[in-house]
Design brief:
Number of helices: 5
Helix content: 40-55%
Strand content: 15-25%
Number of strands: 16
Strand order of the largest sheet: 3-6-9-12-14-15-16
Oligomer: single chain
Largest sheet: 7 strands, mixed
Mean pLDDT: 85
């Protein structure tokens, strides 16, 4: 078991050194990275939790939260190569499962959405998300409920995700929506931000409404033109009728004069 812990800690150390350009040396990561400190303590707390020393695990995890401002429940399962960048305000809930080579930024939450009432019935029930391999989760992202985030996916900064995310997809916004952009698995996209077109249903609806308004406006203009043409023809007819009446009147006057 200790060999497994040392392997995990070494993989976390390499991940921080590899993914953060500010990390100048392994020694710097060991002594100055609060994300690595929180993860190191979590590895120990998780081991204690698995051997049924749950109170001690919770106590040490609380000490870790005070020291690092990062809260990770001892029961959360985190695979190798996990990197917490900055990390302050990060929360990872009890039944969360995190895959290999995941990167997560500050203020993110892997949380549950179960109601606070009748909590006894919710114990040992999956309430938190499962994160696939090679996922990047941006700062402030809220991933809520027992959902699945697919492998090689990206969750943009401040996104709110409450539904499953397929593999190789980028989701941004609140609520999170698909970003139409191909993902290069070999590239690292900080904060889960990719260039591309957002699949925004609200934007599509507004666009359809504008098209409908434009079509109605054209119909109104056509009706106005038709009314003006009809009015013009009516005026011409009335003028001709008036002239005809005047001519008839003059004829009657002449006939009466001749008589």
């Amino acid at each position: 078991m200790s060999k497994g812990i040392f392997h995990l800690i070494y993989s976390d150390l390499k991940a921080a050194k590899h993914r953060d350009p500010a990390a100048r040396s392994t020694l710097e990561v060991v002594f100055t990275y609060s994300g690595f400190h929180a993860l190191l303590l979590h590895r120990i707390c998780h081991m204690l939790w698995n051997i049924k020393l749950k109170f001690l695990a919770r106590f040490l995890s609380n000490i870790s939260r005070i020291l690092t401002s990062i809260e990770i429940h001892p029961a959360a399962s985190i695979a190798e190569g996990f990197f917490i960048d900055h990390g302050a305000g990060l929360v990872i809930g009890e039944t969360s499962v995190v895959g290999k080579n995941v990167t997560i930024y500050q203020q993110a939450t892997l949380g549950g959405i179960s109601p606070s009432i009748d909590s006894a019935s919710q114990r040992n029930v999956k309430r938190h998300p499962t994160i696939g391999d090679n996922v990047i989760i941006g700062s402030g992202a809220q991933i809520l409920g027992p959902i699945y985030i697919g492998d090689d996916s990206r969750i943009g900064a401040n996104a709110v995700v409450v539904r499953d995310v397929p593999n190789n997809m980028t989701y941004v916004g609140m609520p999170a929506r698909k970003l139409e952009s191909p993902i290069n698995k070999d590239s690292f996209e900080a904060y889960g931000i990719s260039k591309g077109k957002i699949d925004d249903p609200n934007k599509k609806s507004i666009s359809v409404l504008f098209k409908e308004l434009h079509s109605l406006n054209e119909k109104i203009l056509s009706l106005e033109s038709l009314i003006l043409q009809t009015a013009s023809k009516k005026d011409v007819f009335e003028i001709k009728l008036k002239k005809s009446k005047q001519q008839n009147k003059k004829k009657r006057v002449r006939n009466e004069t001749n008589i």
